[in-house]
């Protein structure tokens, strides 16, 4: 299968390209020089459509996004341009060349008030401008594409990632003093295993809305302790220069859900769910870091 990946330089995009090639697929990485989703005009649509048509693309995976959750409170139009109108552009281009589209969304579309994980049949209630822009993207993609996979993810980390969790090992090794949230619940999900899950879903062709996170739950404070424990078991001690604080002590412009837990019901019902417990995935991630000399 010929697969175009938008956002190929991000951590998830990198892992998707690697895992797609390992599965025998042809990969066409599409970066911002070809299609800049912050300018989702007709010219951008034509350029992307021509690129997809010229490579006989059968699937487009869109990982490109405006991901600055706090920044979106001030740059709301920019967030909507990329996450909503840009996502729609990708879906339209894919549809016009007969390709399916896989769009990545977020656990933040929910408010976190439920006392259980959210499944695909729960009604979203976004709390922030970023989350509203991502929900708008879901809706526009579903309308623009006749064949779409909309996959909500959360708690992502991985090699070459630029978010806080991806840089945690580096920060700890550097001796930084960190304040970590001890309240908010999440299911940390390693990008490599998520990439494999997304590929399995797309290969099966079961279009629709899906949740995809690792099993279980933790807080970022407890995740950091687990990371140090697992690193120690691999013979690499990391300083625990961090403290757990209440969410209210980590003031930020954007409100975040107090629970980001997703129930991956649709993957499970279709017999496609393959993501492991979050701690097992963390152990595999650190083993990879050790092998490549980054732990």
Q: Give the proportion of residues in helices.
A: 25-40%
Mean pLDDT figure: 96
Which structural class do the helices and strands define? alpha/beta
E-strand count: 10
CATH architecture: 3-Layer(aba) Sandwich
Any idea how many domains?
A: 1
Number of helices: 9
At the first level of CATH, what is the class?
A: Alpha Beta
Separation of the first and last Cα atoms? 35 Å
What does this structure look like?
- This protein is of the alpha/beta class and 295 residues long.
- The protein has one domain (2-163, 189-217, 256-276): 3-Layer(aba) Sandwich (Rossmann fold).
- Helix content is 39%, strand content 15%.
- It is built from nine helices and ten strands.
- The chain has helices at 11-22, 42-54, 76-96, 129-144, 168-173, 191-204, 220-233, 265-269, 278-291, and strands at 2-6, 26-30, 59-62, 100-106, 148-153, 156-157, 178-181, 189-190, 208-211, 242-245.
- A six-stranded parallel beta sheet has the order 2-1-3-4-5-9, with helices on both faces. A two-stranded parallel sheet has the order 6-8. A two-stranded parallel sheet has the order 7-10.
- Helix 2 runs parallel beside helix 3, helix 3 (76-96) packs parallel to helix 4 and helix 7 packs across helix 9.
- The longest helix has 21 residues, at 76-96.
- The two termini are 35 Å apart.
- The model has no long low-confidence stretch (mean pLDDT 96).
């Amino acid at each position: 299968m010929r697969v175009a990946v938008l956002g190929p330089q991000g951590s998830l995009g990198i892992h998707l390209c690697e895992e797609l090639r390992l599965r025998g697929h042809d990969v066409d990485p599409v970066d911002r020089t070809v299609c800049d989703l912050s300018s989702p005009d007709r010219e951008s649509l034509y350029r992307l459509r021509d690129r997809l048509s010229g490579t006989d693309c059968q699937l487009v995976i869109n990982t490109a996004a405006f991901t600055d959750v706090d920044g979106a409170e001030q740059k709301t139009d920019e967030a909507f341009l990329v996450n909503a109108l840009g996502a729609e552009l990708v879906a339209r281009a894919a549809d016009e060349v007969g390709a399916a589209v896989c769009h990545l969304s977020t656990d933040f579309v929910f408010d976190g008030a439920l006392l259980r994980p959210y499944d695909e049949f729960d009604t979203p209630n976004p709390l922030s401008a970023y989350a509203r822009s991502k929900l708008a993207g879901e809706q526009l993609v579903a309308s623009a594409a006749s064949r779409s996979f909309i996959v909500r993810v959360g708690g992502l980390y991985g090699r070459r990632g630029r978010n806080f969790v991806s840089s945690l090992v580096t920060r700890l090794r550097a001796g930084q003093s960190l304040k970590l949230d001890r309240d908010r619940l999440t299911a940390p999900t390693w990008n490599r295993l998520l990439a494999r899950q997304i590929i399995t879903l797309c290969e099966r062709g079961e279009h629709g809305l899906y949740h995809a996170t690792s099993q279980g739950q933790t807080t970022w404070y407890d995740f950091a302790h687990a990371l140090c424990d697992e690193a120690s078991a691999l013979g690499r001690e990391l300083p625990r220069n961090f403290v757990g604080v209440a969410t209210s002590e980590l003031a930020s412009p954007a409100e975040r859900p107090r629970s980001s837990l997703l129930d991956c019901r649709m993957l499970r019902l279709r017999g496609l769910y393959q993501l492991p417990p979050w701690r097992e995935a963390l152990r595999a991630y650190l083993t990879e870091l050790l092998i490549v000399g980054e732990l």
